[in-house]
Amino acid sequence: MFKSQLISALFISLFAFSPVCANFDYIQLVLTWPASFCYRPKNICRRIPNNFTIHGLWPEKEHFRLEFCDGDKFVSFSLKDRIVNDLERHWVQMKFDEKFAKIKQPLWTHEYNKHGICSSNLYDQRAYFLLAMRLKDKFDLLTTLRTHGITPGTKHTFGEIQKAIKTVTNNKDPDLKCVEHIKGVKELKEVGICFTPAADSFHDCRHSNTCDETDSTKILFR
Ligand SMILES: *[C@@H]1O[C@H](CO)[C@@H](O)[C@H](O)[C@H]1NC(C)=O
Q1: Do residues 221 and 151 lie in contact, with contact meaning Cβ atoms separated by under 8 Å?
Q2: Is 206 in the pocket of ligand 1 (CB under 6 A)?
Q3: 60, 63, 73, 141 — which has fewest CB within 10 A?
């Protein structure tokens, strides 16, 4: 009796404590707000979508980001592969026109080689790109923000934006990323949403501390 209990306890702990053998602690889906990303003195975008688009999917350790790991480099997807059209909708290579972007795949190459390889023990190249699109489709950030009165052209505190986003992340902390294109005006450029390595639940994100988190200043949603 005692022995079988011991054995089952051993099995339960094996399963409970090693669900996946990842070399990273969580993975951050970074979504860009195109109006802010593309707002520069000289416009760097050939295309500006009206919705959030993927910047990248970044494997993270608790206190730092993994980058440029050893492994197989990005291999361009064939133009005949339907993933190219799917990625072009969700992971828009805004700096390039569509034809060039589909052939050269510059952003996808950069992101996979810098970040994707670091999660290749769990997700091979194809799985990595499919995962990013699947995670993005878990929520509709634009509608969530709008529901909370956060619409393009309005300003809100860090707390208000964070609270709105937490309604779709099971109350886990997102990472809001700000830039200051105009002196004294912080604006929301990106939102990071974090997931466990197996991508089966949300996880708190480390804060990049690029936004002013005090209640006395407001952040522009351009
Ligand atoms: C914006 O993207 C989300 C998530 O991919 C999608 O559900 C939504 O329909 C899009 N909204 C618009 C206005 O295109």
Answers
A1: yes
A2: no
A3: 63
155-210 pLDDT, tens digit each: 999 999 999 999 999 999 999 999 999 999 999 999 999 999 999 999 999 999 99
What pTM value is reported for the model? 0.90
Q: Evaluate: CB of 144 within 6 angstroms of ligand 1.
A: no
Domain segments of the chain: what residues? 25-221
Distance CA 33, CA 24 (A): 26
- Quick: pLDDT tens for 81-104: 999 999 999 999 999 999 999 999
DSSP string, 3-37: HHHHHHHHHHHHHHH-SS--SSSEEEEEEE-HHHH
Q: Is 75 exposed, middle or buried (0-12, 13-18, 19+ CB in 10 A)?
A: exposed
Residues labelled catalytic = 55, 111, 115
Q: What is the CATH number of domain 25-221?
A: 3.90.730.10
